[in-house]
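Purpose: get a first structural picture of the assembly so the mutagenesis plan has something to point at.
Setup: two entries, given in the order below. No constraints added.
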Amino acid sequence: MKHALVVDDSAVIRKIAKRMLASLNFSVQEAENGAAALNYCRQTMPDVILLDWNMPVMDGMEFFEQLQTMPRRGRAKVVFCTTENEKSKILRVIEAGADEYIMKPFDEHILRLKLQQIGLISAESE
Amino acid sequence: MTKPNSAPKPGMMIQSFDMLSAFLKRTSGLVVTADKLYLVENRLMPIVHREKLSCLNELVSVIEKGTKPALAKEVAQAMTVNETYFFRDKTPFDQLRDIVLPKLIGARSATKTLRIWSAACSTGQEPYSIAMLMDEFANRLSGWRIEIVGTDLSDAILTKARNGAYSQFEIQRGLSTSQLLRHFNQLGNVWQISEKLRSRVSFRALNLLDSYASLGTFDIILCRNVLIYFDVPRKADVLNRLSRALTSDGFLLLGASESVLGITDGLSAHPESRSIYVRREMPTAIRHPPAA
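Result (C-alpha cells, whole complex):
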C-alpha cells in the first residue's frame, strides 16, 4: 500500500482528500501546515504529498523548497493542490520541480488521473 | 389511454419510453434500455422544462407527431452526448505513440501525409489529444500534411469542440500540467487550446449511421466507447464501413471493452493490442484521400 501525506490548513479539505486517497488504496496521514509536514517527512517519507500552497506557519512553497534539500532518492512526489489557478503561478510551481498541480475544486477522478500521470497508480480503462 | 403504472419509472409511460427508444435507435442507432431511464430523465428534462411541456411523455408525443424536426434532432443529440476527457484511458494514446505512429511514419515517408479520424468526438478532447500527441513527433513530421478530423452527431457539441475552450474541471481530466501549460491559454476561468493546435483539427457533423464517403480514407480511425451503445447489426454495419474507410494498412482503435469478435470478419486484432484493429484483407494499393 502506498503512503500519502495531505498537507492543508483546512480540516474539511484534508478529510475529503483523505477519503479520496483511501479509496485509491493509499494509507493517508495529515498535516495542517508546511512545518508539521516537514517534521513528518523527516521521520517517515511518504510516496506522495498533496500540498496546499497558502497555509499559516509555513506555506506550501517554503515546505517544497525545504523538502528538495532532502536526499533525492526516496523523496516523495509532490502534487500541489491549491485554489491558485493562474497560469503564471502554476508555471512557477512546475518549474520549481513539482510533479503535478491540481486546481481546487477537484474530485476523485481528477486526483486519480493525476496520480496515474505521475506513475503512482496504474492506468485503467474507464 | 395508456397506463402510467406500467411505466418503467413514475413520470414516463412504458409506451412513451418504447417510442423514444425506437426513435433513438432509428435516428442515431442508440440502444436505450429501461435501466437507462435515469439517463433519459437527466438529458431530456431540461428540454421538457424549456419547452414548457408537462412531462417526458408529452415531449415524446411531440416528437412522434413529426411537426418539430429541430426538437427531435435536439433530443437525439442530447441522448448521444458521451463523457469524454483528454487522453481518455491513456493506453490507446501510448499505443498510438509506440506502435501505430512509428509504423505509419515509416510507411508514409514518400507521401508525407497522415489522415486521422476521431469518430463521435463529442466536445473535441480526443482529436485535440491526438493533435498534442502529434506535436511530440514534430521533429519527425516536419513538412508533413497531418489532417485530424473530428466528427459528432451534435451541432451544439461541435461548436464547443471548434472553440476548444474548456472549464477548469475539464482541463484537469487527463491533461498533465505540462501539457496544459504548453498547449492552452487561460481566458479567465476558461482554458482554450492554442490556435496552433486548433488549426490542425477540423470538425464535421456526421451521424455514424450515415455514409462516410465524403470523408475519404484514413490512416487511423478512433471510434472508442461508441459501439457499446449499438445493437449487433448496427455494430456490424458501422464496423464494416469503418474498415472500408481505412487505408489498406491503416489502424482502427476501439474502446477497451469493445471487440469485433463475432461481429465482422473485415477486421482483425493487431498482435500487439486487443484495442487496435487492422483490415483483414490487404489490397495491393493504398487508396488516395480526397483533396483537402
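Confidence is low (pLDDT under 50) at residues 1-10 of chain B.
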